[in-house]
User: Which sequence fits this backbone?
């Protein structure tokens, strides 16, 4: 039987290895966001099971690998819509999304306005510079900091008032 201190040291060492793998997965998403990526391929590349990767990634970064990928794609799309003269369909393709409809829905969900409306508003200078900035109203801090502090509020995650079940007299 192992000494208890050895066991905790082994657990800590494994946790550090897992965090290094998760950082490599996140870095790969950042580099290859425009390529077709799925959780299974990311997990294979990290030597982890897909379910384990998803749980560990969410625990470390506060969102699933897919949500992180889509956030990066939408952030890049925001930049392209502000600075390049591409159609929304071209921007969709440029950032690695294969379906303009899904891209538009996800963009609207994260930013709060449709891509075309975002472009028009950016021409007027009335939009934030990042997804978290668009949601939290602050483009001063890096996205990772504002998302961790405030969380990205998506439409379906918005709080819905729950009616009181107390008896009215």
Assistant:
């Amino acid at each position: 039987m192992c000494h208890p201190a050895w066991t905790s040291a082994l657990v800590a060492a494994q946790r550090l290895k897992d965090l290094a793998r998760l950082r490599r997965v996140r870095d790969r998403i950042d580099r290859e966001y425009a390529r077709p990526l799925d959780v299974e391929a990311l997990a294979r590349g990290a030597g982890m099971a897909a379910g384990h990767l998803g749980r560990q990634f969410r625990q470390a970064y506060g969102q699933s690998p897919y949500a992180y990928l889509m956030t990066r794609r939408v952030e890049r799309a925001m930049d392209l819509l502000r600075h390049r003269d591409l159609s929304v369909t071209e921007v969709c393709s440029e950032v690695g999304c294969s379906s303009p409809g899904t891209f538009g829905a996800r963009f609207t969900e994260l930013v709060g306005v449709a891509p075309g409306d975002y472009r028009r508003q950016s021409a007027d200078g009335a939009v934030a510079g990042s997804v978290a900035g668009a949601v939290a109203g602050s483009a001063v801090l890096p996205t990772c900091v504002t998302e961790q502090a405030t969380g990205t509020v998506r439409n379906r995650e918005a709080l819905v008032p729950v009616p009181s079940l107390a008896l009215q007299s």
The two ends are 65 Å apart (CA to CA). The longest helix spans residues 4-32. Confidence is low (pLDDT under 50) at residues 135-142. The chain has nine helices and no strands.
